[in-house]
Structure formats: structure tokens, C-alpha cells
Amino acid sequence: MSEWMRVCPLEEIPRLGSRVVQTGKGDVAVFRSGSDEVFALRDQCPHKGGPLSQGIVFDRKVTCPLHGWTVQLDSGEAVAPDCGCTHRYRARVDKGEVYLNLS
Amino acid sequence: MKKTRLVVIGNGMAGIRALEELLKLAPEMYDITVFGAEPHGNYNRILLSPVLAGEMTIKDIMLNDVDWYAQNGITLHLNKTVTQIDRARHKVIAADGTEADYDRLLLATGSNPFMLPVPGIDLPGVVAYRDIRDTDEMIEAASRYRHAVVIGGGLLGLEAANGLKLRGMDVTVVHLMPWLMERQLDRAAAGLLQQSLEAKGLKFLLEKQTAELIAGESGRVCAIKFKGGETLPADLVVMAVGIRPNTDLAEASGLYCNRGVVVNDTMQTYDPRIYAVGECVSHRGIAYGLVAPLFEQAKVCANHLAQLGISRYTGSFTSTKLKVTGIDLFSAGNFIGGEGTEEIVLSDPSGGVYKKLVVKDDKIIGSVLYGDTADGSWYFQLLRDGQNIRELRGRLMLGQSHLGNSGHQGQNNAASMPDEMEVCGCNGVCKGTIVKAIKENGLFTLNDVRKHTKASSSCGSCTGLVEQIIASTIGGAYLPADDTRKPLCGCTDYTHEEIRKAIAERRLKSIPEAMGFFEWRNVNGCASCRPALNYYLLCTWPHDYRDDPQSRFINERAHANIQKDGTYSVVPRIYGGVTTPSQLKRIAEVAEKYAVPTVKITGGQRVDLLGVRKEDLPKIWADLDMPSGFAYGKSIRTVKTCVGSEWCRFGVQDSTRLGIALEKALDRMWAPHKVKLAVSGCPRNCAEATIKDVGIVGVDSGWEIYVAGNGGIKAEVSLFLVKVKSAEEVMEYAGAFIQLYREEARYLDRTVHWVQRVGMDYVKKRIVADAAGRLALYERLKDALRDEKDPWQERVHGAAAREFVPIRLQS
Q1: Ranges of CATH 3.50.50.60 domains, chain B
Q2: Residue A103 in domain
Q3: Which residues of chain A are within 8 Å of residue B555 when distances are taken between CB atoms?
């Protein structure tokens, strides 16, 4: 049994943007970078729980809309000098479709 | 392919800063070789005084240790003095025969101490005060001898004298001029300084000319003899009468020198392969001896070495701070004055405070502060920015904290604040946290401190205080931020103004084009520059530019205001704050239908529905059937009005009608920051128009227009622009002012910040004096807004749909 779940076609996520995916484990933010990589994070900033899915995306980073923390998309870690980490999930693109693995 | 070879002569602060800047811009471009005459890496020469005073060690003041050169692939020749530049063969040769070929050469040979041409100058025990070796020699002498004489009562001489005194010597300062630090201080401030130094046990001999240094039996200097015959015992003589640019090598190689190696605005010498930076340089006839200008030169030089070829060095204003613990002294610019200048002076000799500002044409051109230097960086900023101070005049002397500020700026003397006192109220940062971050991370600048501690990074009202804390923690090594050359963000070195100009002139019409043109360091920019660029492009090309939603802050992307729990708030447009029963009924029904948890009247006289789920937004907008109130944007917000002449028994003008007309004319307008207006129908001013970006006050004979007010963190009363007769004229003047702000302010400047920078005279010149220009501005505003559509209605009809729809996972 595969734990990979189909989310949506890649085009459904804006480049340098994200979509909120509602899952049994809560909201997950799925991001698409400028070079079409995809990343998935729990949709909560390690600082005060802000929805990271609503932030501005650049490189492999997102800036939280509430207080401006920047979080690394590939690790979930806050960028120094801030300190904290949000849960990261695996995500990938296959034949134009985005898949998410919540295990 | 072989890399281009860059040779740097001089391993000091200017040369190495240029390399650091170059490595940031073009890390792979050059093979780099550095020659240094001293046996050390690059150290902070400014901090030799605290080392001499025993407050720091050599280890504390290293900036780049030997490992740094290795890590960056730089060949480092220590202890090697370059003695020859073979310009024909592009080769430098050191005294020991070491050679290096160059394609580009950077001269950063610094300066030499000036030694008085008197007999005995070569005796043992006579030292200059320039480098680690001199400092070591002084420390060593202090442990063995008693009498020290410092020749020269300038900055360096006094710091040397203070250090030697702290190390237990009996110190006399000999000075040729009638008062101390005559190049930085006027006579009154110098008098106060001398008193407090005398209280520390230093002795002074003014207007004394040295004739000879006399040797004792051991061959070491034992006394100093003055013109006129008196003598004074001296086991150590420190020569601190000034520095001279070290141009020996440049002159021997035939480079044009005139009191320094002459360079142009790109830091290039008369030989185009050879650049020069630092104290050895003469730029527009000035040789700088302070660190801030040298760092600016280094930055410009690096830009050209990296072949970007854009930046220019146009000279610096400099300021001086004396690094003697317990003495606060600051001077900048022309503090003596001259024809056409006036002085504002505060003198309290028994309190040990003296402040003088030299003013010319309503601008500060110089200042001297003694005893209380808390406002030094503020005055210096006013000076550098050439800001018109007419409006501030009466309050200038009292300092920045007296400008109607409800924040914490400069209210406390940084040095005496307890560690647990809160400095930044926005981010809850106390003084101890800032000091710890500065010490542990070796921070030098305001921006570093902001990044590490978040202090002063939100509202900015504590900026002055944070600057004081940095200055009091690291002393003279502090680099005040240069506000006149503020890069847009960390992704570029170019300023807001340079970027806006290029967008218009080079016809750049997208964010990638603009980033490409300026060679942005990060491919997608960052959360600071993308919204700024998006606005600049939109403002410059209102009909051609395609807005980039991913470069907008979420509020402007969702057209609602994000709240702390991730829900949104909805504020419909209610022009002038005048509503109807049916509109209110509809709002009430929507609030009930969507179970809106909180309904509130806002400060701007509108209705706010709080706690709306993002996915409900388009449905709520459809049911409301009202335009967006833009309560979430860097945009027109509201026009607040009072009841006015229609009902009010005092009203003399119809303020609601004008307010509604203004709000309709400005509807859907994006701006560098939020824009708030108000219209009052009589001078009682119930709409509080005098704390708005544009405030209109009705009087019997017409309307008074005020601009650049602010009711936020730092309340600012608006400034009078003009009085007009008709409502049509108000529309034109107010519209033109707002368009000028849209076209010329930096992104995230409120009108108050922008007007403080450019001056009210400039605004009046453009808006009041120039009728044709005013009309053109107003026309441009109307043209820019002509095809802006209501964002809510667009979304009700399906625009940007996926922004609002979450994906539900089928598992």
C-alpha cells in the first residue's frame, strides 16, 4: 500500500505560492518554488502558529504573514536568527501531479 | 580559463572591506593576493584606544584572522612591504623580492603618522600611535616608566593620553593650538572637555611648540624642550600631531598624487588598472581619516571591480566621537560657522553639558555636543539628509524625544539604562538582550541588531535608542546607518530611487526584468523587495503592468485583513462614512448568515466584520454587494468626515459631500503605504483632519489643506499646505499631493516620513507654486485609476478563485 496521496495538478498551485490542503492531520501548506519544486509543511509557523500557506514565497523559503518569521521550506526550520521548527512532510511531482506523503 | 588577477597592497580596514564587498558581488571573478606590511590579519584600528586603555585585547579587535584569507582562497603575504609597482609589466615587487602579477591593482596603503621635524625624533622611547606595534610599545613603556608626554591634542592624542593615564603613567598633553581638538570642537566644548580630562588626572600645556627631544644617559628620550627653553621630563613621547596619506609607493610608480592618491568617483586612479581606497586616497580634494567614508569607498570600488559599473562615490559627511570612557563628545560637519550661518546653543557649564548646532538656510550644517550626545545621530541624520528644520527649530535642542513621540526614542541615556529595561515595545526586547547580541555576535550596525534581536525592526520608534546602545557598547566602531543611500533590501545595493528611475527610463515592465537589470542577488528576491517592486512597476506603468499576486502581502492578495488566528476581516466601502438603513440591514443579515463573531465600528468610521473564514470571503462579498473598503492595503483607506454644514449648527462647509467626492475619486488607489484622509466642516475639526495624510478643514471663506500628519506610533500634526476657495480646487491639490507621494516616496514610507525627508518647501514648490505641474500630477492620478476595478466584484465573478478554495485530500 502506497502512502503517497495525489493532491492536485501542479498548475493548481501558483508558482512562488502555495495551497492549503485539508488532511486528517490538520491543514498542510503545499508550496511551489520558482523552479517548480514542491514542499509541504504543517500550516503553522513555529512562532505563533500563523498560516505559512499565506506567506510570500522566495527561493526555498516562506515568510509568515503574521510577524515576518522566515521558514525554510525544505526543512521546516526557522531562518536564523529566529529559532524553531515546523513539521515537514514529503511532497513530490510526478507527471505533472503533486503527491503528498503524511506518514 | 585563467581568472583575472587582483592584487591588494595594504591589509587594513579599507582594503579588506573592499575585498569583502567584492566577494559578496563576484566571489569567483578574481585570483586575489594581499600584501600587508604588518604581521597580523586585518584588525580594527579604531579600537586600539580601548586596547591601550586595557578595556579590550588584540584578540577582541581582529576583524579577519588569517583563516579567513585561506577560506576565501586569498593568497596573503604578511610582513611584506611592497616597494615597487612595475606598471608596464603589471607586477608588484616587495622588499624581500616577492613578486605578484596583476590585471587589477588596489592600493590601500593607508596613512603614516606625521613626525615633527625636530632633533631627537629618532630616539628610543619616541613612538607614533598607529598600529599594534606602537600600542604594544606604549603598554610596555607604561609598565616601566613614569613620565609620558603626548604631542598633539587631537582625537588620537587624547585617546593615547587617556590610555597611558589608565595604565598608571603621569601624562602631559602638549598642544600647539589654543584649545584641544580644534578640528572637531569649538572653544567652549573644548574647555569642558579639558576640565573633565583634568579631573581624570591628565595635564595640559596649550600653545606650546616643541623644539627638541633630549636623550638621557641610557640613550632613551628623557625630556622634551619647548621653544622658549622650558623642559619637561619624558620617558615616553607619543607623536600624535596628525596623519599623512601614505603615497610613497604610488608616487614612485608615477601615479598622480596630490595630498593623497587622486581618484575619481569610481575610486580609479590615473592608471585605469589601478584603484585606490582608504586613507591614502584624495577624492575631490579630500583625504578621509574616519572609518565610515572608507567603507563607503570600499563598497563603490568593489562594485566596479565586480564590473557592475553602476555605483559612484560622491564624498561623505563625517562625524566624530571621542572614545574616552565617561566622556561624551560628538561633532559633525561645519561646527565653527561662517558667513550666513546662525548658531543654536545650549550651554550648562556646571551641568557639564554644551550643545551647539550651526544652521544655514534652515538646514543643520554642523554640530558639537558635549556631555549629552544622545541626539548626535539624529542631528547627523538631519545634516546628511539636508532636511529643512524650520518647523522643528524651537524644539531641536530638546532632542528627538521631545517631538511628540509616544515611543521610547532617546528618552533614556543608553549607557545608564538597566539591562532589564524594555527598549523595543513592539517585540519585547530589553537592553540586556541587545547588548548580549552585540557582544556575542560581533554586531556593528543597526541592521545587524534588528536581524538578531528584532529590536527596532517593527515600528522603528526605538531606533534612536538602539543606535545609542550599539554606540555605547562598541564605541567608535559603530557605523551609523546611512539613510541617504538605503538599499531597497538585502538582495541589492541599489536604492529605491535608483530602481524607480531605471524602471521608468529603461522601460522595465516586470519583476524579473527589474531584478535582471540590477543583477538581484537572490533569484526570486525576498518578502521585502518583491512587494516594493510590484508597487513601483504598478505606479510607473498603471495600464501595462500585470500585477503579480505572489509578490503581494496576503492582505492585498486576499483583499481582506488577516487576523491572529488566520481568519480575515471584511470592511466594505462606505463613502465618507455615510450609510443608509438598507445598507446597514444588508450588513446585519450577512453577519448573521455567516455567524460573524465580531462586528465593530473602526477608527475610520466604517463597519468591520471580524473572524471570517477565507473560503467564505467571496460569498460574503457577493451577498454584501458593496465595493471593497481597501482596509487591508497599502492603498487609500478612508476619508473620515464630520457632519458638516448640512446639519451641524457650527458647520461652515459641506464636509460630508467633499469627503464622499474625495473617497470616490481616490477609490482603489494603491500607494507606497496606507493613505488616510479626513474632512472637517469647521475649525473645530471633529474629523481630526490634522493627523491625517491629507486633512481638509473648512473655514468660512473656503478650505484649508493640511498634509503629512500621522496618528500612529508617533503622532505628527499635519503641516499647512495651502488654502483654497472651492471643493474642486481641494480635489486638484489633494490629488496632486497624493500623486507626488505615489511617484516619489519609498515603498512603506508614510507621507510624514517622505515629507520629512524632502521638506515641506519642496512639496509646496511642486504643488502650490507650479500650477501646470500640479494639474499634470492630478491628471496622472486620474489616468492611473481610470481602469482599476473593484477587486471584490472581480472575485465574486470568479477571479483568483483558487486563492480561496482549500484542497480536500481524498484518502
Answers
A1: 4-111+245-305, 126-241
A2: no
A3: 65
Cβ neighbours of A55 in B, within 8 Å: 527, 554
Task: With beta carbons under 8 A apart, name residues in chain A contacting B564.
Answer: 48, 50, 66
Could you give the C-alpha distances from B195 to A63, B413, B548, in angstroms and in order?
54, 22, 63
Q: What is the sign, positive or negative, of the torsion defined by CA atoms of B477, B481, B484, B486?
A: positive
Amino acid, single-letter form, for residue B684 = R
Residue B129's closest CA among B325, B318, B323, B271?
A: B323
Confidence of residue B352 (pLDDT cuts 50, 70, 90): confident
Give the distance, in angstroms, between the CA of residue B760 and the centroid of all CA atoms in the same chain.
Answer: 21
Q: pLDDT for B71-106, tens place per residue?
A: 999 999 999 999 999 999 999 999 999 999 999 999
Which CATH number belongs to the domain containing residue A52 in this structure? 2.102.10.10
Per the CB < 8 A criterion, the answer to whether A69 and A75 are in contact is no
> Could you identify the residue written with the cell 622611547?
B125
* pLDDT value, residue B409: 41
Buried b (16+ CB within 10 A) or exposed e, B628-643: bbbbbbbbbbbbbbbb
Helices first, then strands: H and E counts in chain B: 25, 39
Confidence bin at B407 (pLDDT 50/70/90)? very low
Which residue of B lies nearest to A23 if distances are taken between CA atoms? B809
Interchain proximity B554–A7, CB inside 8 Å: no
A82: in domain:
yes
Helix/strand/coil for B240: coil
| Homologous superfamily assigned to B553-628+796-811 | Sulfite Reductase Hemoprotein;Domain 2 (3.90.480.10)
Across the interface, whether the CB atoms of A100 and B525 are under 8 A apart is answered no
- How far apart are alpha carbons B764 and A93 in whole angstroms? 58
CA nearest to B567 within chain A: A51
Q: pTM here? A: 0.61
Q: How far is A14 from chain B (nearest CA, A)?
A: 8
pLDDT at B430 over 70: yes
- Whether A58 sits inside 8 A of B802 (CB atoms) is no
- In this predicted complex, what is the ipTM? 0.94
Domain count, chain A: 1
pLDDT at residue B791 above 60? yes
CB B128 within 8 A of CB B134: yes
